[in-house]
Design brief:
mainly alpha; 0% strand; Cholera enterotoxin A subunit
Length: 21
């Protein structure tokens, strides 16, 4: 369960970083 949250957090962070233009 924690693994999924961790991956989701990274995905969200990466998405936000990509849109942080």
């Amino acid at each position: 369960m924690v693994k999924i949250i961790f991956v989701f957090f990274i995905f969200l962070s990466s998405f936000s970083y990509a849109n942080d233009d």
